[in-house]
Amino acid sequence: MRNTLVLNASYEPLSTVSLQRAVVLVLQDKAVVEHAHPLRRVRAASVDLPLPRVVRLRRYVRVPFRQRAPWSRRGVLVRDGFRCAYCGRRATTVDHVLPRSRGGGDTWLNTVAACAADNHRKADRTPEQAGMVLLATPFEPTPEASLMLALGADQDDLPDWLPLPA
Ligand SMILES: [Zn+2]
């Protein structure tokens, strides 16, 4: 699980790493803990520190290019705020706008959050064929937002000053 956010020295989100990797960065003095889990701690032989959720590199790292956001089902649900793209109610599933059986892929632009009922109703059809209307156009999150998406369910305990997913 890559669920610890790494910030550049300039506080820009840079990447996500495993908890183990984050702890190593801190122990090697390459990063400082900017935000820790309120209760949990990392304890090992000679280590006892608050469980880091966000670490910041001490030295600025020049980033030559921005990677594109990797697609994930969870990322689609978070991007869409867990709201069904067809009815606006709570979504727990991901719908392929152009069904996979018709060549639709696992991409940001082809997937939306959907409630189970609408996903079932739409089935193996396009929205037009099913007579359903998308309430919003799917979009590709920025790389920065995708880092936040990658952090998953524990976003609630992240600090306020971090940029939120677009
Ligand atoms: Zn729905």
From TrEMBL:
Keyword Nuclease included in the entry's annotation: yes
InterPro entries tied to this protein: HNH, HNH_nuc, NA-targeting_endonuclease
Any one Gene Ontology molecular-function term assigned to this protein's record: endonuclease activity
Domain HNH nuclease: 71-120
Highest taxon, organism lineage: Bacteria
Keywords assigned by UniProt, alphabetized: Endonuclease, Hydrolase, Nuclease
Keyword Chaperone: no
Protein name: HNH endonuclease
Source organism: Streptacidiphilus jeojiensis
